[in-house]
Amino acid sequence: METVVSGIRSTGKLHLGNYYGAVQNFVKMQHEYNCYFFIADYHSLTTHPTPDDLHGNVKQVLIEYLAAGIDPEKATIYVQSDVPQIAELYLFLNMNAYMGELERSTSFKDKVRSQPDNVNAGLLTYPVLMAADILIHKATKVPVGKDQEQHLEMARTFGNRFNRLYNTEYFPESFAFSFSDKLVKVPGLDGKGKMGKSEGEANAVYLSDSVEVIRKKVMRAVSDSGPTEENQPKPEPIQNLFDLMKIVSSTDTYTHFDELYNKCQIRYGDFKKQLAEDMIIATEPVREKINAIAADTEYLSKVAKIGAEKARESASKTIREVREIIGFRSF
Ligand code: TYM
Questions:
Q1: Residue 316 CB neighbours (<10 A)
Q2: Domains held by the chain: number
Q3: How far apart, in Å, do the first and last CA atoms of the chain sit?
Q4: Residue 189 resides in a domain
Q5: How far is the CA of 16 from the centre of ligand 1 (A)?
Q6: 281/300 same-domain check
Q7: Residue 99: how many CB atoms within 10 A of its CB?
Q8: Tens digits of per-residue pLDDT, 125-164?
Q9: Does residue 162 sit in the same domain as residue 46?
């Protein structure tokens, strides 16, 4: 059976980008593959080196994984830092990762722009740690959103380079995966680009947002004064709202508003109201479970403990073999 690995940084609650880009695929994949889903707390330190509540953030992601339907009896759910073998593989891979290729990564360049006062080595080697996450279980499929595509390419580069340098065929190649025909990019509500945690509270709708908050955020989403010519192309803020509608609403609803737009008869108030209601319905099952799961600390610690054990078992086998391939021997 093919092995799947994926993770989400522990920088807080999950938004619809995480849900539709990644978590929904996790839930479906757990029935068909040998799945490892983790909470990337090492990675979170690259942007938040002194978090106020590291454990609380990790717990929140664990709660939302479970609320979204990841089943600990089917998939292995674990916290990255519970598996220190990942850090060891990261160290080995770092020896064969080059400054030039790391500096060229789009996400590194973005971070240099967004946090110029903290361009740390962890940011530079972020894709190496991500490759270690994937290679530690020798995964071949990685469910992620569109923004992670380049990281996956780098993970293949590092795995292939290891194989070439040590003259082995140890690591398989892994590829980004989505059940839809393309990798998903969920737009934000601020009129430009993707939904993300760093783009400000109003840009993202969170799985844990209340119904009232969802309505408020969607009604305030950036739009414009409306189309003036029939069939005119949609500017980015409007296209983004339609893209969101395509994700959460039925095809009929989408077509209805698309036709109104093309005939210049759309009323954004009605359009947003419908979008908010459909978002509420689509996320209802997850929202309902979050509080109950959060209250069950015993269950959470059991899930994390069992997950850590299963993940460590697979990871220590890989590290043992990697050490041998490189040439580490005990006396
Ligand atoms: P992170 O925490 O930024 O996001 C987690 C997952 O959510 C997806 N995602 C989106 N998908 C579509 N539209 C959006 N607006 C959107 N925003 C986020 C991301 O593509 C991702 O799949 N580097 C990773 C975490 C990671 C990882 C790994 C993933 C660490 N190691 C190994 C896979 C395998 C990250 O920062 O994701």
A1: 15
A2: 2
A3: 37
A4: no
A5: 12
A6: no
A7: 9
A8: 999 999 999 999 999 999 999 999 999 999 999 999 999 9
A9: yes
